[in-house]
Amino acid sequence: MAVTIKDIAKYAGVSVTTVSRALNGYPDVSEETRERIKKIAEQLNYTPNSIARGLVTNKTHTVGLVVSELIKPGAYHPFFLEVLAGIKAGLRKDKYDLILFTVDPESQDATSYEKLCNDRKVEGAIVEGLRLSDPYIKEIEKTQIPTVLIDIPILTDKVGYVSSDNVQAAFEATSYLIKLGHRNIGFINGHGDAAVSFERLEGYKKALEKNNIPYKEEYVVFNDFTQEGGYNSFKTLVFEHPKITAVFHASDLMAIGSFKAAKDLGMKVPDDISIVGFDDIELASLITPGLTTIRQDTFKMGYNAAKHLLSIIKGEKPQHILIPHKLVIRDSARKI
Amino acid sequence: MAVTIKDIAKYAGVSVTTVSRALNGYPDVSEETRERIKKIAEQLNYTPNSIARGLVTNKTHTVGLVVSELIKPGAYHPFFLEVLAGIKAGLRKDKYDLILFTVDPESQDATSYEKLCNDRKVEGAIVEGLRLSDPYIKEIEKTQIPTVLIDIPILTDKVGYVSSDNVQAAFEATSYLIKLGHRNIGFINGHGDAAVSFERLEGYKKALEKNNIPYKEEYVVFNDFTQEGGYNSFKTLVFEHPKITAVFHASDLMAIGSFKAAKDLGMKVPDDISIVGFDDIELASLITPGLTTIRQDTFKMGYNAAKHLLSIIKGEKPQHILIPHKLVIRDSARKI
DNA sequence: CTGAAAGCGCTTACAG
DNA sequence: CTGAAAGCGCTTACAG
């Protein structure tokens, strides 16, 4: 039913070999023949069968996007969309298509990462939202499938990653609070199953150290990046350590949870407590007071992830790609 | 390099025919042979080549998701993620994979809908976020590719759609305001390029009519579903018609824009003006005052879209599938 | 219950 | 510059 190169060959009075070569831009076809074939192909409304081509070339021109916990309101949720848009943009020029896989810990046990990719013959994959304890992590450490991770530091022969400079970003956010005069700075961090949590903690410590402020372990709490997490952590943190005048958060969602908790406790932001977030999600500029936070360029993260994956597929060496961030100052932190 | 049924056949001492049949569960293979072949396949870590299979069966077990304007902060942005999660859930059981296409008006001119789908041999597609003026709309009206639209009413031989009952939902929202005592109710509607805008307008009118409140055209403004849109529309609407005591919005984003505009104008919500939104995005419950709005079950929209697409692919008749909505009462509208 | 053979639509050495 | 032929990994009548 669909028209094939065989049909074209018949109409043109040439062999399928010649049709194939003409359409694929090989040099060893006379211009005249090529033009004739092209015209016929167009008239017949021919579209090449990518499946058939894929079978012989063993290339599918497809990459996978492996996402964990797509709609759980966790760490990656708020900017998944922008990362995705970036990925699509990065794939566009090379005309790679994207096939979406969603996984959770159980599905990872059921189907290995290699199998997931091989079943669909993707040439490589971008992986996002995995926890360090997820089964795929170990697999990816030794896979030969070109892979780019987002926010998970694994670097091998075939695996690279993109991320913000989380250490530096947390350093800047904390330093900013110190510059405003704060000395007792709490840190509501993400969960311990995310690489970024450790990096941000390092940045936080670095800033304290540089300013000769002793690090107090009890000022740091771990939670799950969500609004509820922030809400709960804030309440206990502030209750147990009334000297705290500012709280840095590993996500905007948690910072917003703290807004709510502060309100419930009768505290005003930033008058009674200064708050700084991380991510710069859309909401950050919409709430009152505007949330001071670290902006991650999530579109660029996706874009670079895609570009880098394509280069790994082409045989280039995987890298760690740093995406610039920026401290966005709004009204939720004040000088004391 | 990868192991094929040929390899298995050799090891098992049978023909590839038998291997194929054994692995695919055909009945005409002796149990003993089947078990032996299965075991060998497992030992060899065999995964079938879906490409090769696709070539002969002409089935790819893949559907497309065609999305327009992925990250433009427009109408669909806020709940794209949940729809997507619903789609993935709906596809899971039948093991269909999803390939993501993003389009804009230009790309639609460059590549027809049919070509987009045929190039990748998807068996059908879910389409989301298109404007009524988009080129694909006309194409989809006469396509033979199984298609399910979200929020766009096209029903043909091969095309169905899912949506909320927008007329009824707008009717309920408006009726609620009327019940609270409001008589001068503004309506900040979406743009005229969305089918839902007309449906919601109809519901708004119906509620007025039922309560013998004359419909005033000047109380209705169209904008683009975004926060800025709401902001601007609110300012002019309230300025030109000071008698208005309540405003219904075709999106939460616009309602939130109105929150901001009201604040700028020195008006308090709900004391000076009652506000009702549409969608129930996450933000609606996070802002102060909580936004009274219509909740759309976006996960279900995606889930049903996927299920329905699969049924159309199997030859069943396309339908219009209605997804239940719900008026969520919070604090942004008050009795007068 | 099993196998030989054709064929899905393409690409690519190889030969001329 | 062009074509005949093999082959990618599978499925499926057909025959036995």
TrEMBL record, chains A, B:
Extract the PANTHER family matched here. HTH-TYPE TRANSCRIPTIONAL REGULATOR GALS, LACI-RELATED TRANSCRIPTIONAL REPRESSOR
Spell out the Pfam families in the cross-references.
LacI (PF00356), Peripla_BP_3 (PF13377)
The organism's place on the tree of life at top rank: Bacteria
Name the chain's protein: Transcriptional regulator, LacI family
Keyword annotations of the record: DNA-binding, Transcription, Transcription regulation
Residue intervals of the HTH lacI-type domain? 3-57
Taxonomic source organism: Thermoanaerobacter uzonensis DSM 18761
Task: Cite the HTH cro/C1-type domain residue spans from the record.
Answer: 4-51
Q: Name one GO molecular function term.
A: DNA-binding transcription factor activity
Q: Does the keyword Transcription apply?
A: yes
